[in-house]
Design goal:
The structure holds two protein chains of two kinds.
Chain A: H1 5-12, H2 18-40
Chain B: H1 3-11, H2 17-35, E1 38-41, H3 43-58, E2 70-74, H4 101-108, E3 112-117, E4 129-130, E5 134-135, H5 151-158, E6 164-169, H6 175-181, E7 184-187, E8 207-212, H7 215-225, E9 255-259, H8 269-276, H9 278-284, E10 288-292, H10 297-316, H11 328-339, H12 342-360, E11 368-372, E12 385-388, E13 391-394, H13 395-400, H14 404-409, E14 413-420, E15 426-432, H15 438-451
Parallel strand pairs in B: 2-3, 2-6, 9-10, 9-11
Antiparallel strand pairs in B: 1-3, 4-5, 6-8, 7-8, 7-14, 11-15, 12-13, 14-15
The chains are: A mainly alpha, B alpha/beta.
Chain lengths: ~60, ~450
């Protein structure tokens, strides 16, 4: 089912003009149709690709 | 003339850096009214620097192959004391107090910065049709886009005004303008080149690299700017190997993968033919061309779009209070990013790991992969849709279809000319390598260049 982008915008970006939300809708709906099945089949224990670099900048000597 | 040829002439005192730089500035000024490739031209600074480089050479100090070579830098790289606009109104008068790491390194290598190249607003788009500073035009056909976002760098290297122009690449922004303008462009491995001092568009997809006039020139420039930088959290602690291929290149033992799926689907027939024509060239150089099946790149592109929309909107959110200062296309993308849920962003980064692992299996069968760089040649300025073999496709999505996913995967990828269409517009091939194997990618590119003359074709300017 396609998302209601107007409701999403009202919740997270209430300052966004209605015509801007309308312009976003079709692009986001087609992206969502590609992305949703991928996200839904992710194994639950897959970690994100980015790294948390604990201590970076506190190493000294550089 | 290549950088090595120019360096030889400089070394033999047959030309001076002052003369080379004057030639570059003359070419820049001659083409600027047509191409609009620059936002700032640095006449006085460049000529003064060229004089200094000549004096150093006369005193016996030569810094390397870029000593006294005229170059340019995309206007996304901070330049100390020189306006850096990002192609946006928000930074119209921004004069940084620092040089970007890449600018520092080019300076240390003796390169002469002739100017700051024009670009898509905030580096967020592929057309370089900038509503604030005017469109950049393609030197092969000024009615066409140069690609983007590094459109000025593509146009000025395509016009052969400078030997190299720096670009940044978040979803193809080095390779697309290189492809559309007949230049060579390398998007290095994630972490290979410091992002310090570059105004970010995206925190995990941005890459810095050169656009140049030949494969070896691109390699010389990447050699100069690569290396670890503690000021950039993504910078890799890996050694920088010799990047520049030797005079004679053999590809004996090199397996070049040719995709059976995705990369030759929905492609302009002239593009597909030109790229496939490289197979016998590679085989003649000693390579084995082997079929490979690539993972679902359409999925990788979707993942990349979710990451870019989310990160770019987070990065630029503080400017959204002044909506009227944005171009319509950039504002629309920023609005889209604001509406994506955080869960999608996190899942996109998780999927990124899955597909990085899937693609890595290709390296069991091939040492690099050959693809078209863009499914189309440069389209006309203002066309929001392109026609590919009778099917309509959004210009941005078509232009990024073969390149965006490589940013998600973090792999090095070289764009290089491999022919002209019947309408005399450049066609480009892409060579994708394993992480930190830029030398191999350059070697394969050099082998093609040594057996062909595509890189010698010049636009009708």
């Amino acid at each position: 089912m396609a998302k209601d982008w107007k409701s999403v915008a009202a919740a997270v970006a209430p300052d966004m003009p209605a015509e801007a939300v309308d312009r976003c809708a079709s692009a986001l709906t087609s992206l969502d149709a590609l992305f949703r099945p991928l996200a839904n089949q992710l194994p639950f224990d897959t970690e994100p690709a980015y790294l948390l670099l604990v201590g970076r900048g506190q190493e000294g000597g550089e | 003339m290549t950088i090595q040829q120019a360096a030889n002439l400089l070394g033999a005192r047959k030309i001076s850096s002052v003369e080379l730089t004057r030639q570059s500035l003359d070419s820049i000024h001659r083409t600027q009214p047509v191409l609009n490739a620059y936002l700032t031209i640095l006449d006085e600074q460049a000529m003064a620097r060229a004089g200094e480089m000549d004096a150093e050479r006369a005193a016996g100090r030569v810094r390397g192959p870029l000593h006294g070579i005229p170059v340019a830098v995309k206007d996304v790289f901070c330049t100390k004391g020189v306006r850096t606009t990002l192609g946006t109104k928000f930074f119209a008068d921004h004069v940084p107090a620092i040089d970007a790491a890449v600018v520092e390194k080019l300076d240390a290598a003796g390169a002469i910065n002739c100017g700051k190249t024009h670009m898509h607003e905030f580096a967020y788009g592929v057309t370089s049709n900038n509503p604030h500073y005017g469109p950049v035009r393609n030197p092969w056909n000024t009615d066409c886009i140069p690609g983007g976002s590094s459109g000025g760098s593509g146009a000025t290297t395509g016009a052969r005004s400078v030997f190299m122009a720096m670009g940044s690449d978040t979803g193809g922004s080095i390779r697309i303008p290189a492809a559309f303008c007949g230049s060579v462009g390398i998007k290095p491995t994630t972490g290979r080149v410091s992002r310090y001092g570059v105004m970010p568009l995206d925190f995990t997809l941005d890459h810095m690299g050169p656009l140049a006039c030949s494969v070896r020139d691109a390699a010389i420039c990447l050699q100069a700017i690569a290396g670890h930088d503690v000021r950039d959290d993504s910078s890799a602690r890996v050694p920088v190997p010799e990047m520049v291929p030797g005079q004679s290149v053999s590809l004996a033992g090199v397996r070049v993968g040719l995709p059976e799926n995705f990369y030759f689907e929905r492609v302009d027939p002239e593009v597909a033919t030109a790229v496939r024509a490289l197979v016998p060239v590679l085989e003649a150089a000693g390579a084995a061309v082997v079929p490979v099946r690539v993972p679902d790149i359409a999925a990788v592109n979707a993942i990349g779009r979710v990451i870019l929309l989310s990160e770019a909107s987070a990065c630029l959110q503080r400017f959204l209070g002044a909506r009227d200062k944005f171009g319509a296309d950039v504002l629309a993308l920023l609005d889209q990013g604001r509406l994506l849920p955080a869960t999608d962003y996190v899942n996109a980064q998780r999927l990124r790991r899955v597909f990085q692992q899937e693609w890595a299996r290709i390296w069991h069968h091939a040492d690099c992969v050959l693809t078209p760089c863009s499914p189309i040649p440069a389209p006309p300025i203002g066309d929001s849709e392109v026609d590919i073999a009778g099917e309509k496709e959004d210009t941005r999505l078509a232009s990024t279809r073969f390149v965006r996913g490589i940013n998600v995967l973090g792999l090095p990828a070289l764009a290089m000319p491999c022919g002209l269409t019947s309408g005399r517009m450049p066609i480009s091939a892409q060579i994708i390598g394993p992480p930190f194997r830029e030398p191999l990618v350059f070697q394969v590119g050099a082998a093609i260049e040594d057996s062909t003359s595509f890189h010698l074709a010049k636009p009708p300017l």
